[in-house]
Amino acid sequence: MNSLTPANPGIARFIPGLALLRGLDPAFLRTDLVAAVTVFAILVPSAMAYGDLAGVSPVAGLYVALAAMVMYALFGTSKQLIMGPEATTAIMTASAVAPLAGGDPVRYAALAALAAVLVGILSFGGAIAKLGFITDFLSKPILVGYIFGTTLIVIGSQLGKMFGIKLESDQFFRQVLELVSRLDEAHTLTTVIGIVSMAALFIIRRVNRALPGPLLLVVVAIIASTYFDLQSQGVAVVGPVPPGLPRPTIPAVDVYDVFTMLPIALALTILIYADEILTARVFAAKHGDKINSNQEFIGIGMANIGAGLLTGFPAATSGSRTVVNDQMGGKSQLVGLGAAAFTIVFLLFFTPLLAPLPTVVLGAIIIVASFGLLDVYSFRFLRKVRRAEFVLAMVTLFGVLTVGILQGIFVAVTLSLINVILRISRPHDAVLDEVETGGGVVYRGVGESATEQAEPGLLVYRFDAPLIFANSAYFTQRLAALVEGVGAGLKCVILDAEAISDFDTTAAEALENLDTDLQRRGVELWIARANEPLRELLRSTGLEEKIGAANIYPSVRAGVEAYRRQFMA
C-alpha cells in the first residue's frame, strides 16, 4: 500500500484532492508546473482587476484566487477547472453591496465577504439535498450554445484592452458597437502590441504546441516594457501590487445583514453552479473524465467560504484561466495548487515583478486561448442531425449574450423541457408486419397505415413512448384512425407495449374507453410485451381483468399465433 494513500477512504471521498498524493507521475508534474506558472502569470493582473470591479481593494481579488484554487483543488472533481474571481460575480457583488455599505469601505468589504460565505453555505445545502441532478436538464445543445456564448463574452471583455479603450458597456453586442463607434480613440501602440502578441501566440502554437507560448510572451513583454518604458508612452500596465498575506477573518456583520444578502447569495449560487458544472462537463468530456455533480457543490462551497474568510468576495469558474490551463496541457488540480503556491510567494516577495506588464498582452493571451472553444462544427452537427436541437443551441447562445448567462440557461432549459414534452406528446408509432430474417420471423414497423397487416383481420400497433396524459388523446386518435382504415374485417388489435414503460390514470381511462369502443365493433384488444411494472399498473387499474389476463402475451409473435389459433382455424 502506498504510504501516501489516505487511511480513511471516507475522507478521500469527501476530499477527492487527496488522490493527488497517490501515484504522482513525474511527466505530469513537469507539465502541470508549466501550466501553473502560466495560469499564475495571467492570474495576478486579472484577479486584481476583478477585485477593483467588485468594489473592494484590488488585492482582494488575489485573496479570492488563492482560497478558491486551494479549496477547489482539494474538494472539486474537475481536473482542469480553475476557480477564482470573475467578472460576472464581481459585478453582481458590487451592485448588491454598494447600496447597503453607505460608502463605508470596511462595511463594504465585510458585506462582500459575507456574500461569499453565504454562497458557500447554500452550496453545501445543494450537496446535502443532492441537487446535482439538475445538470441532467443541461443537454448537449445547451452545452454547445452556452460555451460558445460565454466564450464570446470572455473575448468581448478583452476588446477594450486590445485597443487601449476603457469600454463602459458590459454586454457583448453593446461592447462591440461601442468599440466600433470609438475606434478613433484607439491607442496605436497598444493596438500594435496586441496584434503582435496574438500573432506570436498563433505562430508558437503552430510551430510547437508543447511550447508555453503565453509564458514566453509574458516574459518578453515585461522585458520590452521595462526597456522601452511603454507606460510613459501611454500603454496601460499592471502597476504595483500591495505585498502581504491576508489573515482569516469572520465577516463583521449582524443577522439583518445575513437575511438582506440571502437573495443575492442565492442568485449567485445558482449562477456559479450552472457556470461551473457546464464548464466542468465540457472539459471532462474532452478528456474522458467524470464529474460528480453533487461533489461540485462541495468544491464551490469550500472555495467561497475560503474566499469569504480571507476578506474576499464570491468566487466562480474562471473560464479564461481554465482554457489557458487546458491549452498548456494541465493534467490535474496540481495546477491550481501550484498557481496558489506561486501566488503566496508572489504576495510575499515579488509584488513589483508584474508591474511593467502591459495589460493588452493579457488580453491577447485570453482571446487566443478562447478561440479553441468556438466550436462551429458542433452547430453544424446539430443542424444536420436534429434541427430542433440546433435551434435550441442558437437560443442558448443568443440568450447568454443578450439577457445574461443565468437567464439564457434558464430559457434554454425551459425550451428543452417543452421540446421533450412535444416529442412525448407526438411520439413515433408504427403498424407492425411479419418480416423474415436470418434469425427467424420478427415483427417490425413497416408502415404507418392500416394497409400493412400481420394477418387478415389483425392489426399490430406499436406506440414508442410512455402512455401518459400528454399523449393519451393522440394515442386513441391514431389507433381509432387505423381501426377505421381496416374496416369491417378487423377482428383483433394487438398493442405492442414494449416502449410503454409507464402510464397514468388519464391514459388508463383512455385505454379503457378504447377497449369499450373496440368491443362495440366486435374487435378484441390484446397486449404484447408488457413489462412487469406495466402489468402491475394494469392490475391495479382493473384493465388486466377487463382485457383478460389470457390476452396479455409475452411477445408479439405469441399474440399473432394465438390470433391464428382463435380466428383462422
What does this structure look like?
- It is a single chain.
- The chain is of the alpha/beta class.
- The chain folds into two domains: 24-375, no CATH class; 427-567, 2-Layer Sandwich (Transcription Regulator spoIIAA).
- The protein has 22 helices and eight strands.
- The chain has helices at residues 9-14, 26-53, 60-75, 87-101, 105-128, 140-163, 172-181, 188-207, 213-228, 255-287, 293-309, 319-327, 334-349, 359-371, 376-385, 387-402, 405-425, 472-486, 505-520, 532-541, 543-547, 556-567, and strands spanning 83-84, 316-317, 429-437, 440-447, 458-463, 492-496, 524-528, 552-553.
- Strands 4-3-5-6-7-8 form a six-stranded mixed sheet. A two-stranded antiparallel sheet has the order 1-2.
- Helix 5 (105-128) packs antiparallel against helix 11 (293-309) and helix 10 crosses helix 11.
- It is elongated.
- 46% of the residues are buried.
